[in-house]
């Protein structure tokens, strides 16, 4: 029921710009009147700096499908923009192995 209320009953976003590694940033500091608390929480998180969709989903505790609808609405309203994906082909093997070791310890 909560997801239905948050998205206004929509199951699909109006835009399909957001996969888990899309980097999202604030586009402008606009009036938040009419935004639901979850959308305001997303904007507060983005006020600290750019974040991926996966990071935002983890922080706001929403399913990705719901988050994509909210992000699309925020983008349409001019609050956010998608900066692309977090990828860096320059990562060397030793760094990736260190990350893997760290993840295995969790």
Concise summary:
This protein is α+β, with helices and mostly antiparallel strands.
The total count of helices amounts to 5
Strand order, main sheet: write it out: 2-1-3
Shape summary: elongated
- Tell me roughly what share of residues is in helical segments: 40-55%
Round the Cα radius of gyration to an integer and report it: 16 Å
The fraction of residues in strands falls at: 5-15%
Largest sheet: 3 strands, antiparallel
Report, as a whole number of angstroms, the end-to-end distance.
33 Å
Average residue-wise pLDDT: 79
Give your account of this protein's structure.
The chain has 106 residues and is an alpha+beta fold. The chain has helices at residues 2-7, 37-46, 53-60, 64-76, 93-105; strands at residues 22-26, 51-52, 80-85. A three-stranded antiparallel sheet has the order 2-1-3. It is elongated.
SSE blueprint and pairings:
Layout: H1 2-7, E1 22-26, H2 37-46, E2 51-52, H3 53-60, H4 64-76, E3 80-85, H5 93-105
Antiparallel strand pairs: 1-2, 1-3
List keywords for this structure.
106 residues; alpha+beta; three-stranded antiparallel β-sheet; 5 helices
